[in-house]
C-alpha cells in the first residue's frame, strides 16, 4: 500500500481545492506558522503555510514578474526597493534583474522561511539572497516600516493573506500610512490582492484603505495565476498622485528592451492589457475607492466557512 497525501485548502465556503503530494520534502512548525514543502505532479514543488498554498515552482514566475516589472518599468528610475514578506525570494529575484536597482531591503518575520526556501526552493530565489544589493531584515514589517521615511521608490507587499496569521498586521490603515511615509515623492506601492472572484473583500478592503492612506484613488491590475484556484490574481497599486496605467504599448516596449531582462510571462503586451478590467471588476474597484468604512464592504458572514478537512487518502497505486 502506497500512502497518498492530499493537501487541502478552502478558498471560500463550499469550495475546497486539493493538491496531491508525490513526495513530502519538509513539514515544520516555526515560531509563527506551520510550513510544508512537497512535490506535485503538475505544479512542481509547493510551499504551503498554515492552510494556504503560498507558491509553486511551476507558476510562481507569473506572480513575481507582474509584482516587480509592472511598477519598475512604469516608474522608469527605481533604485531603492522594500519588499515586505516575500520569504521565498521570487520578488527579490525579479527586482534584482534591473540594473537600475541599487538596494533591495526585504523584511520577513520568519527567518525559517528564508532558510527553508534556500534549501528546498533554490530555483525560486535563484541567488537573490546572495546579491550584494540585497539586505535581509528579520522582524515584523509593521514595526520596521515605521523606521523609514522618504527612502524607497517602490514598496512590494508580498505577504500571505490576512487571515489571522503572521501577516495580519500588514493589512491595516496604520501600516499603509507608514508605507506612504517610507516612500519617496514619486514612489509606488504594489501589493498582492488575492483571487478577486473568490475573495473580493480582501482586494476591496485594501483598495479602500490605500485610497484613504495615500489620499489618491488606488487601483488594480490583473494577472493570470494558476497557482491559486480562480485563475486570476489582483495586484493592487497606490501612489500619491495619478495612476500607473498611462504608458503606451510602444513606450512599454521601448523600456522593456532597454531593461534587457529575461521573463517568461511578463511582456509589454501583458503589462498593457493587465489594466483593462472587466466591468464587474471595475465596479468592485470603484465601490472600494468610494468606501470610507471597510466594514460596509461585502465581507463573508462569520461562520460562513466549512468546518471540514477531508482525511488523507490511503489508496494503493493499484487503485488509481
TrEMBL record:
Q: Which InterPro entries match?
A: PABS, PABS_CS, SAM-dependent_MTases_sf, Spermi_synthase, Spermidine_synt_N, Spermidine_synt_N_sf
Q: Which reaction does it catalyse?
A: S-adenosyl 3-(methylsulfanyl)propylamine + putrescine = S-methyl-5'-thioadenosine + spermidine + H(+)
Q: Which UniProt keywords apply?
A: Polyamine biosynthesis, Spermidine biosynthesis, Transferase
Gene3D superfamilies, A to Z: Spermidine synthase, tetramerisation domain, Vaccinia Virus protein VP39
Binding positions for spermidine per the UniProt entry: 64, 88
Protein's pathway: Amine and polyamine biosynthesis; spermidine biosynthesis; spermidine from putrescine: step 1/1
Recorded hits in PROSITE patterns, A to Z, give: PABS_1, PABS_2
Report residue spans for region: Disordered: 300-320
Q: Which SUPFAM superfamilies match?
A: S-adenosyl-L-methionine-dependent methyltransferases (SSF53335)
A Pfam match = Spermine_synt_N
Residue ranges annotated as compositionally biased, kind Polar residues, are 310-320
Q: Name the enzyme's class.
A: transferase
Q: Which residues bind S-methyl-5'-thioadenosine?
A: 33, 108, 140-141
Q: What Gene Ontology molecular function terms does this protein carry?
A: spermidine synthase activity
Provide the PABS domain boundaries: 4-240
The EC code for this enzyme is 2.5.1.16
Quaternary structure and partners: Homodimer or homotetramer.
Query: What family does this chain come from, according to its entry?
Result: Belongs to the spermidine/spermine synthase family.
Q: What does this protein do?
A: Catalyzes the irreversible transfer of a propylamine group from the amino donor S-adenosylmethioninamine (decarboxy-AdoMet) to putrescine (1,4-diaminobutane) to yield spermidine.
- NCBIfam families tied to this protein: PRK00811.1, speE
* Xref: PANTHER family: SPERMIDINE SYNTHASE, SPERMIDINE/SPERMINE SYNTHASE
Its recorded name reads Polyamine aminopropyltransferase
Q: Which organism is it from?
A: Pseudoalteromonas viridis
Its lineage opens with: Bacteria, Pseudomonadati, Pseudomonadota, Gammaproteobacteria, Alteromonadales
Amino acid at each position: 500500500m502506497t500512502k497518498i497525501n492530499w493537501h487541502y485548502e478552502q478558498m471560500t465556503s463550499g469550495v475546497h481545492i486539493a493538491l496531491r503530494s508525490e513526495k513530502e520534502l519538509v513539514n515544520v512548525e516555526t515560531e509563527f506558522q506551520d510550513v510544508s514543502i512537497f512535490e506535485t505532479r503538475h505544479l512542481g514543488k509547493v510551499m504551503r503555510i498554515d492552510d494556504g498554498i503560498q507558491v509553486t515552482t511551476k507558476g510562481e514566475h507569473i506572480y513575481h514578474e507582474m509584482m516587480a516589472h509592472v511598477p519598475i518599468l512604469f516608474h522608469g528610475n527605481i533604485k531603492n526597493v522594500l519588499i515586505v514578506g516575500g520569504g521565498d525570494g521570487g520578488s527579490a529575484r525579479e527586482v534584482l534583474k534591473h540594473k537600475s536597482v541599487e538596494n533591495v531591503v526585504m523584511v520577513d518575520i520568519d527567518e525559517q522561511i528564508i532558510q527553508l526556501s534556500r534549501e528546498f526552493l533554490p530555483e525560486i530565489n535563484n541567488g537573490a539572497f546572495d546579491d550584494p544589493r540585497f539586505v535581509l531584515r528579520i522582524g515584523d514589517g509593521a514595526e520596521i516600516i515605521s523606521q523609514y521615511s522618504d527612502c524607497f521608490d517602490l514598496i512590494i507587499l508580498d505577504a500571505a493573506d490576512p487571515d489571522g496569521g503572521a501577516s495580519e498586521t500588514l493589512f491595516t490603515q496604520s501600516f499603509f500610512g507608514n508605507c506612504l511615509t517610507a516612500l519617496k515623492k514619486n514612489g509606488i506601492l504594489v501589493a498582492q490582492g488575492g483571487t478577486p472572484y473568490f475573495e473580493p473583500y480582501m482586494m476591496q478592503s485594501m483598495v479602500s484603505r490605500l485610497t484613504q492612506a495615500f489620499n489618491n484613488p488606488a487601483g488594480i491590475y490583473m494577472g493570470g495565476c494558476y497557482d491559486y484556484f480562480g485563475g486570476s490574481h489582483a495586484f493592487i497599486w497606490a501612489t500619491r498622485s495619478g495612476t500607473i496605467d498611462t504608458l503606451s504599448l510602444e513606450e512599454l516596449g521601448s523600456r522593456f528592451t532597454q531593461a534587457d531582462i529575461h521573463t517568461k510571462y511578463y511582456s509589454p503586451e501583458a503589462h498593457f492589457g493587465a489594466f483593462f478590467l472587466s466591468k464587474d471588476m471595475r465596479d468592485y474597484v470603484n465601490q472600494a475607492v468610494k468606501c470610507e468604512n471597510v466594514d460596509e464592504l461585502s465581507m463573508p458572514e462569520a461562520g460562513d466557512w466549512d468546518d471540514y478537512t477531508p482525511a488523507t487518502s490511503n489508496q494503493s497505486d493499484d487503485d488509481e
